[in-house]
Automatic annotation (TrEMBL):
InterPro entries: Beta-lactam/transpept-like, Glyco_trans_51, Glycosyltr_51/Transpeptidase, Lysozyme-like_dom_sf, PBP_transglycosylase, PCN-bd_Tpept. This is Transglycosylase domain-containing protein. Keywords: Carboxypeptidase, Glycosyltransferase, Hydrolase, Multifunctional enzyme, Protease, Transferase. GO terms for biological process: peptidoglycan biosynthetic process; proteolysis.
Length: 703
């Protein structure tokens, strides 16, 4: 054996011994570490498949509700690997300086680094690693191998001397098989940079909307700094200050190792981050070109998945589970209903104007969402100045979230006052002589509905609304002063609580604060001043249609894993939240606004009387107008389906859509229902009993 081979063997042996010492000296007897033996310190003769022949994770497929129509797929490889030659040299230099300055000098294990770590770790309270880029790549590749179990993936990253020595042996073997540049390229393509960006191509786009070959010195240094703690240092969702500190560290290391001049490093440190985040991090943009409208449903599905603890403890972990797990997901999306909803939404507003008509279709008793439509293109194409959501958007205009708080839904919120009063023991025939203006006890800060500092709503149509009304008539004609009085009788806090119970989410901070701290004095809530979404509203009315059974809105019908085992996360989540008689009474009153008639023949006019006759089946619903007709809302339901649509300008709340738009909303909702129910039997609502219709009782909270 010649001297070169002896030196190489000695290096290998020393690396193994020192690695074991560095990691185990504090916890294991030295004899045990040295007792690993020469055999356990030599390189492996064979590499695992994850290192020898990297294999992509199994993709997850999202299907429509027929279980066959593919909506899209989610998979890890979507990150787009790039050859190392297409990565800017400054990025290659930055990652080497940040993570392994001696990368081109060692053979996979840096003996000098191991000695340094051993010396530092002997000091109390100190922990210093000695992983090379090659060792980090080995760890990442093993941890991400879809052929391994979760336990095996966890073992690949566990903090033990055995794992570290195994990593070293694999690293030594790998460097004998492939070149340094190939290893560096693999590392750059597998590393996680935070904010959902896997690999340098995705990271370049995610943070700076550029490509790896165009990264500047400052950009490269920031990205290189992220790999140490991507979740913590991520400047988009985490700590921009930490990202700046890490960038400075990397630039200093680049200067110290001679990869850049001190002047260039100083100049780069003086520049701001200048982030230019990309807004297309998911695979919903990959829905079939002819079904762009599916993108909004798909986007909501990813929001739903990211909120499910069954798939991981963090959003990043849940996304990794989705993209490598081989899941088969049958969604609740009905392509036929979706197509009709998209068609009808465009009869309310075309895509060529800034106003929108987000619409949701929900199935009572399951919470399954059959369609989500809006007159927008799903994508990040160019928009006019100041128009974030027109004509292109990936924002969730239908379901809310991601900065979309929703829209005022006006008198549709009277349902919650109606339910609260019924639950408190008041019957449907509760009468009140409704005046044109009613001065309440609720304080208010100025405005046209203020009378001496008290909230005093007025009826929109004196001739048609004023006078002696009961719940049927007041709900049908949408009598503001009746419901202001009713709210006083039952308590505004109970009305707010009822809305929350039926799934109304307060996404706007001021609404959440009022609901939490000022519900008892929030009288105007009854008239729909809180922001909501078509999905929340449709699901609230679906709860009434389902006789008080509330179901969490869901985009899925079933989920099975790669072995075909069905998982519980795909099941419906339903519970009884209303007394059955209370729900039946509310459904009965809801027939009045839409031109239907109750069992007791008490409907005497409604704001959308043309809706039921055209549908030719039992129907409930409500219309709503916010102040100055800034938004207009129509919601309608049968025992089998609920639809809600809200006309608004998502980019400019000052742009009042006007009351005339309801003339288009009402028939659009009717046509969606007629199409979706065309093959379903006609079902009637169960009429309420005489007690809830005509008798004052104790609170009706049982079932």
């Amino acid at each position: 054996m010649n001297r070169a081979h002896l030196d190489k063997l000695f290096t290998v042996l020393l690396a193994g011994v020192l690695a074991g010492l560095a990691l185990a000296a504090a916890a294991l007897p030295a004899a045990l570490v040295f007792g690993l033996g020469v055999k356990n310190l030599m390189p492996y003769t064979e590499l695992p498949e994850a290192l020898k022949a990297p294999q992509p994770a199994q993709r997850s497929n999202l299907y429509a509700n027929d279980g066959r129509t593919l909506v899209t797929s989610f998979y890890v490889e979507d990150r787009v690997d790039v050859p190392v030659g297409e990565v800017a040299p400054v990025m290659r230099d930055a990652i080497v300086a940040a993570e392994d300055a001696r990368f081109y000098e060692h053979h996979g294990v840096d003996v000098r680094g191991v000695v340094r770590a051993l010396t530092a770790n002997r000091k109390e309270g100190t922990r210093q690693g000695a992983s090379t880029l090659t060792m980090q790549y080995v760890r990442n590749a093993l941890a991400g191998d879809p052929r391994l179990t979760e336990q095996q993936r966890a073992a690949a990253t566990e903090i033990t001397a055995g794992r570290k020595i195994r990593e070293m042996r694999y690293a030594l073997t790998l460097e004998r098989r492939i070149g340094k540049d190939e290893i560096l390229g693999r590392y750059l393509n597998i590393a996680y940079f935070g904010a959902g960006a896997y690999g340098i191509a995705a990271a370049s786009k995610r943070y700076f909307s550029t490509t790896p070959d165009r990264l500047t010195l400052g950009q490269a240094a920031m990205l290189a700094g992220l790999v140490r703690a991507p979740d913590h240092d991520d400047p988009i969702n985490g700590d921009s200050g930490a990202a700046l500190d890490r960038r400075a560290y990397v630039l200093d290391r680049m200067a110290e190792t001679g990869r850049v001049s001190a002047a260039d490093a100083a100049a780069a440190k003086a520049t701001p981050l200048n982030l230019k985040p990309s807004a297309t991090p998911n695979d919903c943009a990959a829905v079939p070109a002819g079904h762009n409208d599916w993108g909004f449903f798909c986007d909501w599905f990813t929001q739903w998945w990211n909120a499910q603890p069954a798939f991981g403890q963090t959003v990043d972990e849940r996304q990794r589970t989705l993209r490598r797990g081989g899941w088969s997901i049958v969604s609740s999306l009905d392509p036929d209903v979706q197509a009709k909803a998209s068609e009808q939404v465009r009869t309310i507003y075309p895509e060529t104007i800034p106003r929108a008509a987000p619409t949701a279709v929900v199935q009572p008793g399951t919470g399954r969402v059959l369609a989500m439509a809006v007159n927008r293109a799903y994508g990040v194409g160019g928009n006019p100045a100041g128009q974030q959501n027109y004509p292109n958007t990936v924002n969730q205009l239908v379901a809310g979230g991601g900065g979309i708080t929703g829209y005022q839904a006006g008198s549709t919120f009277k349902l919650f006052a109606l339910l609260a009063a019924l639950e408190a023991g008041m019957p449907l025939d509760t009468e009140f002589d409704a005046p044109r203006v009613y001065v309440t006890k609720y304080p208010i800060d100025g405005g046209p509905a203020s009378c001496g500092g008290r909230w005093c709503p007025a009826n929109a149509n004196t001739y048609w609304m004023d006078g002696d009304r009961d719940m049927w008539d007041a709900f049908g004609r949408s009598v503001n002063t009746y419901f202001a009085w009713l709210t006083e009788r039952v308590g505004a806090d109970r009305v707010v609580e009822m809305a929350e119970r039926l799934g109304i989410v307060f996404r706007a901070p001021q609404d959440a604060k009022m609901a939490h701290d000022g519900a008892a004095s929030w009288g105007p809530f009854t008239l729909g001043v809180s922001a909501t979404t078509p999905l929340d509203l449709a699901n609230a009315y679906a709860t009434v249609a389902a006789e008080g059974t509330w179901c969490r809105p869901t985009p899925v019908t079933s989920i099975t894993d790669a072995t075909g085992r069905r998982v519980a996360a795909g099941d419906t989540d339903c519970r009884q939240v209303l007394d059955t008689e209370v729900a039946r009474a509310a459904a009965d009153a809801s027939r009045c606004p839409v031109g239907d008639q109750t069992m007791y023949r008490r409907c005497a006019g409604g704001t959308a009387e043309e809706l039921a006759p055209g549908l030719r089946r039992p129907l409930g619903g409500k219309t709503g107008s916010s102040e100055r007709n800034a938004t207009e809302t129509v919601v309608a339901f049968t025992p089998q389906l609920a639809v809600a649509t809200i006309a608004a300008n998502p980019d400019d709340p000052r742009d009042a859509v006007g009351g005339g738009v309801q003339k288009r909303q009402i028939p659009a909702v009717g046509r969606i229902l007629a199409w979706a129910l065309r093959d379903q039997p006609v079902r009637d609502f169960v009429p309420p009993g005489e007690a809830v219709a005509f008798q004052h009782t104790s609170p009706r909270t049982g079932n």
